[in-house]
């Protein structure tokens, strides 16, 4: 007789780096990613999907780039699902991450995890951390929700099953997603069902990848039911390859790869969807799903100095040796460079199962076809196709059950979106299973809720401690940002016009503008109106909004090839908000990128001491010296030690600068982050 499964609400203490504030700059800049070159061997379905559905930026989400490397003991809410075979620990406050998954029969941790969490510049919003299983939605990259709390609750079904539910409104695609996790009695796997609902009246590009970090040893092998894979490299290439004969080695053993690479396995349409990692004993994570999750991926860091450095950076240990890991993933599309069309009003659901496949190590490490056949047998024994089908049916039956007990509150953007749609007479969805409570509205959403209600005659303000009257003055500004043509219409309506409204309107137009000169001219005109026009009512722009208007105008001018004018506006923004790290870093970086190191030096000279000592600013100072021909001064900064906390994945700037200013000296190991 097995032990009944349970859900326990508890806490865990993790040495967690300080995430810092959200960036005050609206995220109107293009995403940084390499342009992938699709080779002739790539099917048209993939190549067309690569070209469709990309976002210009992550607006209206703010960037998360103010983190440090300093960690402190932090107590986090944890939800533990456990029976006599499996123990799974979720962290709802960190994007719903499945942080630990223990196989009780062997005592092995199936996921790569750690006692310290450090952030690095890998995600759509910059900050990301390694470990566990993460859930990524929206567009290519680690999700906009990866570091924030999700709405979380316990759902109790009529059959007596307890389910952990986590959900959120994705502001990028304007859809709602929910993650239901449960562990049946005596089950060797934990089930996770995902549902995405598109309440819009149009098709939206959709993306989903479940990313599992697995421990990597010299004898770890990753197996999936395919003979070929699409390999991508950090040089922007993509090609169809045999992963067992990739660059003269069997790359299905992660430790045998010389450099970082992705392998997207080419599973046949009728093939069961699974992927497993097996260690020296044959144990390791099995990633099994219903047919909706087509893609399967292996990512390896590689054994180069850069790959080792990244692992040390992301997963440091007390011994000083990096805790190595690889990633296995499952997704909606064949590769992570594609988006899948999600029709208007559609609701999609699938289920995944995670557990120990417990392979025979001799068969798992043998000839590929035999290893795949053995893996398929063990996966079927672990969780049969019938079990997956039943779990999917169960998830569908439970999807709209109301929460029984709230665990963690998410943000208020879902509640605001409901109000926006009601105001605009747009369709929304049934919130019974995924409620966005009015109590989640905060001062972040407050000004926008007031703007809606001022145009409806509604006076209550649930985001404030006490109720008050709707203000008679026009829009007074907001520290947060929104997007949508109906918001723009409200801001430009006669009774609402104000300098702050004009500024926010300019930001929204810039966020959706194309790279064309005409669009940039419109953006520049709107920012100038916000800066220069005296509006009939309302206050002039705040200092912050003036600075951000100069910044937005500068970006528009640069995009229109007015380099001198654009850089002058960025300098004006820095002069207004001298303590703003984000403005300084962006302005100096763009000055250097556009051949103006003298301006970069002037901006750095004016920077306060509180910013001058930051690693990113010190690197920019060294780069400025180098671009001015002051090689010795640049070398002195690098040799004194520079730690750029938010170094971007795939960017090798420290290495390149060292080679420029110290050409006869070996690059120090701490500066070697090359992914090639």
- Taking Cα atoms only, what radius of gyration do you get, to the nearest Å? 26 Å
Strand order of the largest sheet: 17-21-22-26-14-13-12-11-27
Task: State the oligomer.
Answer: single chain
- Give the distance, in angstroms, between the N- and C-terminal Cα atoms: 53 Å
How much beta, percentage-wise?
A: 15-25%
> How many helices does DSSP assign?
18
Main pleated-sheet profile: 9 strands, antiparallel
Structural class: alpha+beta
Annotation, overall tally of beta strands? 27
Helix content: 25-40%
Could you say which overall geometry the principal axes of the C-alpha atoms support? Answer: globular
Q: Mean pLDDT score, rounded?
A: 93
Q: pLDDT under 50 segments (min length 5)?
A: 457-472
Written account of the structure:
There is one protein chain. The chain is an alpha+beta fold. The chain contains 18 helices and 27 strands. It has a 9-stranded antiparallel β-sheet. Strands 2-19-18-20-23-24-16-10 form an 8-stranded mixed β-sheet, with no helix packed on it. The chain is globular and about 75 Å long.
Label this structure with key terms.
about 30% helix, alpha+beta, about 675 residues, nine-stranded antiparallel beta sheet, globular, eight-stranded mixed beta sheet
